[in-house]
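wait is this the right file?? whatever heres the structure
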């Protein structure tokens, strides 16, 4: 792990602001790791309210999606998607009223106290909650592990440069996060609870320590380094244990949940609120007023950039997520989705286009890969069309942190090659 330029000063002291109500939203049928939703409950001209369930599926790995505004469904069609290029989605035009679904009523303290573990899992599923740190794996599945969970880690590391949404959430909603942690702990019954935060967030550390009070949980202060927030890294830092290659945290009795996810669980249980909005950082040198915004899912990226403008210069690149693991956008019309932790408008200096040259065998990538892979060798195997060899070298364990490409003096596009090769491998092509 290495220390990289943080750029967090742009927004770390900016309180979370509610973004303007969008005039229109586009709700993609894939906002989770898993299959596309195939049961769509609405059609053109239907009226929907904020929080209404729009689509789900019957089996497989998925999380339902909900309306983020009230208004009229315009169409169900293909729209730009921030990850997949294009994807089937539901377009809703706002009626300006922002009416909530009738089901969205707070639960009483008595109702919350009487919820069983199975009830909480059902609420999490019906609310469409996924991992908000970027992985977007459906949370209800993680809350039903096949083996006992000994250690539950709440991940507040937020190691990606520029992003401060989790940090602000911990500063401003620490008590609610703690309630969310209690709910998750009720479902999985861990022996230990850890709240992991990097040492560049002293305010968040203080607030979380105060909020956790005498619960007996451990607030662990991690050294600021990239990619400290990766699941496997946070486990290693908190527990001094390693997740073996090809295995998942639950294989060693560990559950990791991002702080934003835990907060979403709190809102779902306490207020019957589905996941239709989230906090995201909108930042970069091209924006005069970078902010942390609570934005409705489905809002076009350009609307949120406008709210943080004016633009001081033409962005070289617009990225959804952080600069290390985020995805460059081909259109500002793409909507923000459940996994959107940030939007960055980066200028020439922040986003230099680097000519790729040859490998000088410096060993930087091998020395710094947090998983212990040999990225240069994997890239070579990919270049030679030997995906079988790339698999032997452990390509599927790569967490796509981008550190190898960031450090490479030859500016090798290693992580891009790895991402593309992993997609091919998942589709069953090995050469
Ligand atoms: S090979 Fe993967 S895990 Fe290793 S540094 Fe490169 S992107 Fe990160
Ligand atoms: S960091 Fe780049 S130049 Fe150095 S060994 Fe790895 S691929 Fe080669």
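ok assuming it is, sequence goes like this
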């Amino acid at each position: 792990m290495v220390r990289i330029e943080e750029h967090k000063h742009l927004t770390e002291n900016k309180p979370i602001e509610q973004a303007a109500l969008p005039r229109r939203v586009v709700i993609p049928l894939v906002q989770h790791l898993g299959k596309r939703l195939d049961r769509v409950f609405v059609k053109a001209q239907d009226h929907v309210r904020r929080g209404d369930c729009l689509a789900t599926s019957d089996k497989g790995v998925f999380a339902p999606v909900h309306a983020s505004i009230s208004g009229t469904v315009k169409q169900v069609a293909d729209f730009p998607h921030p990850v997949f290029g294009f994807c089937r989605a539901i377009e809703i035009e706002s009626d300006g009223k922002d009416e909530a679904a009738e089901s969205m009523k707070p639960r009483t303290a008595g109702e919350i106290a009487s919820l069983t573990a199975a009830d909480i899992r059902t609420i999490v599923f019906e609310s469409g909650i996924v991992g908000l740190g970027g992985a977007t794996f459906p949370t209800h599945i993680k809350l039903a592990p096949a083996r006992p969970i000994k250690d539950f880690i709440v991940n507040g590391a937020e190691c990606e440069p520029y992003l401060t949404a989790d940090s602000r959430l911990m500063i401003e909603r620490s008590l609610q996060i703690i309630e969310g942690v209690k709910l998750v702990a009720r479902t999985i019954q861990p022996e230990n609870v850890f709240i992991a935060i990097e040492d560049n967030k002293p305010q968040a550390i203080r607030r979380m320590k105060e909020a956790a009070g005498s619960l007996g949980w451990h607030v662990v202060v991690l050294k600021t380094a990239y990619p400290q927030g990766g699941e496997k890294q946070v486990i290693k830092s908190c527990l001094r244990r390693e997740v073996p290659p090809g295995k998942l945290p639950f294989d060693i009795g560990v559950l990791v949940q991002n702080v934003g996810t835990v907060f979403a669980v709190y809102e779902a249980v306490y207020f019957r609120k589905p996941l239709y909005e989230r906090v995201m950082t909108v930042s970069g040198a091209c924006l005069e007023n970078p902010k942390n915004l609570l934005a409705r899912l489905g809002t076009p990226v350009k609307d949120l950039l406008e709210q943080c403008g004016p633009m001081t210069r033409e962005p070289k690149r617009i990225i959804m997520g952080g600069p290390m693991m985020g995805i460059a956008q081909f259109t500002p019309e793409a909507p923000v989705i459940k996994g959107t932790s940030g939007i960055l408008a980066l200028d020439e200096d922040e986003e230099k286009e680097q000519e790729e040259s040859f490998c000088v065998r410096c060993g930087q990538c091998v020395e710094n890969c947090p998983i212990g892979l040999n990225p240069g060798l994997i890239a070579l195997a990919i270049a030679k069309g030997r995906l079988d060899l790339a698999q032997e070298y452990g390509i599927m364990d790569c967490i796509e942190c981008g550190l190898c490409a960031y450090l490479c003096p030859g500016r090798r596009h290693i992580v891009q090659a790895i991402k593309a090769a992993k997609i091919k491998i998942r589709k069953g092509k090995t050469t």
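The longest strand covers residues 71-81. so i think its the right one actually
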